[in-house]
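During the second year of the project, the team shifted from modelling isolated chains to modelling whole assemblies. The rationale, set out in the original proposal, was that interfaces cannot be judged from single-chain predictions alone. As a representative example for this report, we include one of the complexes processed in the last quarter. Its constituent sequences, exactly as entered into the pipeline, are reproduced here:
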Amino acid sequence: MQAHYGYKDGSGDYFIIIDTDRCLECAHHGCASACPEGVLEIILDDYDDTVAAVAEEHRKKIKYSCAPCKPDRDRPPLPCIDACTPGALTHSW
Amino acid sequence: MAEYWRWKEYRWHDKDRDWRSGKLVTAGVDVGSVSSQAVIVVDGKLYAFSNMRTGSDSPGSAKKAMDWALEETGMKLEDLGFVVGTGYGRVNVPFSDKAITEIACHARGANYMYGPTVRTVLDMGGQDCKVIRCDERGKVDAFAMNDKCAAGTGRGMEVFADLLAIPIEEVGDLSLQVDEEPPPVSSTCVLFAKSEATGLLREGWPKSKVLAAYCSAMARRVVTLLEQVGIEKEFAITGGIAKNIGVVQRLEKQANVKALPAKFDTQIAGALGGALFAQNLLKKKLAAN
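Output from the structure prediction step:
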């Protein structure tokens, strides 16, 4: 499943996309602990799969929650994407 | 004072069937931000439903919707083998056995309503909009949801119905009564769109033209969300806005896709999906005992 968490508003599209089929392959889910803002959490989804998801409290403000990891220049790799070994995680912006 | 936004609440049950002869009696309750539905399914077939506005009290709205669905059926709450709560207020359904997200429930409900060929479901709800891609079993393959902005939602349309003093059920038809399609109003915010519409009325635009401009903007807004996930045929629309022909026709044109005709009330998709999930969960529960 391609889960698109986030929103569109007047300023753009802000989605974190999680491929839960790939996410399932991962045993340790390092993405959640790698995120300094606690944007990601590990949940049991509607189909009883243990996968990463964007925490409810961040879904309407991820543009701001993720901003500290996205400086204007000299942008390092995002810690969540770096930690996601199966390559299940992408950001739309 | 007339409330033009107020849509008709209603209930239905299958008078030709006796639920007592069924083995699996389950229900789904969808407590949305604007409307609440309760659906009862007997042996995998739709038996009864209610559809009403959500009040300020989510548990109370869930109970009212369920009581209304049960009315005239001779069924009591205790007769339901399993109840699934879904929607915005899913964790506030006091009598539910499990809460499941509206994403999964809408996909499942649409699979029942439109058949197993449906692959993309657009749910245009009261205060959010969801695009769901699903497989032939109604399992979610991909989804995107926009619940941050009221543009492209039922509440936005209610605001316009009130502004123009047009009953909400007539908005779609009236918006099609234009000789030429006007440019869409500002689609980024309902508040900006409303002030823009007020200006257009002052300029002498007829109400039908203003509505056409708003329906077009709403369709454009939703098409961008559809593109985020990608449209696969067959395509279906659920939720209250699916009843608005003005938005549906414009959306079909802009997305270059034809929506499947609705065989059931489009607003009950979430609760129906919940009731179908409940059937499987009840089967598992009975097998475990």
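Chain B touches chain A at residues 100-101, 103-104, 133, 139-149, 188-189, 224-225, 228-229 (CB under 8 Å). The beta strands of chain B are 10-13, 25-31, 35-42, 45-53, 82-86, 98-99, 120-124, 129-134, 140-146, 235-238.
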